[in-house]
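Reply to dn_fold:

You asked what the input looked like. This is it:
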Amino acid sequence: MRLGIDLGGTKIEIVALGDGGKELIRRRVSTPKESYAAVIGAMRDLVTGVESELGTRGTVGVAIPGTISPVTGLVKNANTTRLIGHPLDKDLCVALGREIR
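and this is what came back:
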């Protein structure tokens, strides 16, 4: 199973894809406004919730409104300003205990 997360300024959406790209489940929550940590927590909760519901673990890929600098490893140029200056991929890896793409 593959899990894709679309992280935006107003919503975070996750989709789980099975064999042949078949959509298994899709969930959406509002992007937390209070802190960067809350954004990481919301993404973690979406992944663990979908995996629990489907009874299997998947690989995780994330699309963000910006980029991760190859020099610093930190998010830059994001319209979701809470992300700027943070190592989003590394923090989400820690939160989920696995590699993130």
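The longest strand covers residues 23-30.
Hope that clears it up.
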